[in-house]
Write a structure and sequence with these properties.
2 copies of one chain form a homodimer. Chain A is an all-alpha fold. The first copy, chain A, has helices at 2-11, 18-25, 29-36, 39-52, 65-79, 83-95, 104-126, 133-156, 163-178.
Amino acid sequence: MHIAMNTFAARGYNNASLAEIADRAGLTQAGVLHYFRSKALLLTSVLELRDQSGIEQLGAGRPQGLAFLRHLVDTALRNAEREGIVRLYAVLSAESVTDDHPAQDYFRDRYDGLRAFVADALREACELPDEDTETAENAANAVIAVMDGLQVQWLLAPGSVDMAASTDLVVTALLTSLAPHRFGPDGEIRPGG
Amino acid sequence: MHIAMNTFAARGYNNASLAEIADRAGLTQAGVLHYFRSKALLLTSVLELRDQSGIEQLGAGRPQGLAFLRHLVDTALRNAEREGIVRLYAVLSAESVTDDHPAQDYFRDRYDGLRAFVADALREACELPDEDTETAENAANAVIAVMDGLQVQWLLAPGSVDMAASTDLVVTALLTSLAPHRFGPDGEIRPGG
């Protein structure tokens, strides 16, 4: 499975061939198809595996509010140690917008779920009124976007991009901007805030 | 050329075939190769054309400082009217991190150039000390990243993503965070700031 993951990361889904994956795994193409039925289903399995090694454990034990936002910065820090998974995600998420891509629904659902989680965390951390869904969702999309966009830049020029520092700058700036009564200019919680 | 652009946007570079591009253009494959020599050179021409229709006119008339940062928000607004170019850019920039991709140098250079422009604009707008290159570059990478990341989300779910509003939130929050003496909580320039 890691061979398939690495091949999709190195070539993209469309350009990866089952023959190459089978060859690198020491299997025949028929052997791979016996287990996974199709290249698209192999991709699904790879994405599920990636979720387990995953950036956001979306289960019940997930940190909430401010802790979740800080966890995203930690994730950016850890991602700098896992180039393969970052590349897989960066390549496939963007490729998913091409015509008839088999991971399109996967990424659409994933962003929907993430948006809701991050928006909830921002609402909780900043004590935003429940009816102000627009600000929370726009800020949530921005937080997710900065993490994604940094990955592509970092893959191209790791020495020029500090994913954790840039993510932290944005999260901290948004907290202070959305809740100046709660967060000081460096993101520190104000006394009594 | 627009046919090649649309085909690369719809399929990615690796998965686009010269035969399909030629067919849609009413040419033979030999005819396309006569003009462009190779699929990789055709890609280069498409990227140059895209730069002309371009998000950032990097010439001398480019707005400076705060005006440049506001221009990026306008760009995000205009991008919501040009799905084709956004898709081309989102797909190719991420695909460029795959092995031996012919646009890898193009995107590496492009991010280097953009990083320098945005960092300069932030330094000027926020009156950051020249020696504080790290903060300006981390913030610049974040601004570029948020614009890129939003494009993928928007392509997958245009109704759930307001690229301009999310970009504006981040630019405004960063300005206030980097230069609280100059910018108020809504990004307005403070009197005398």
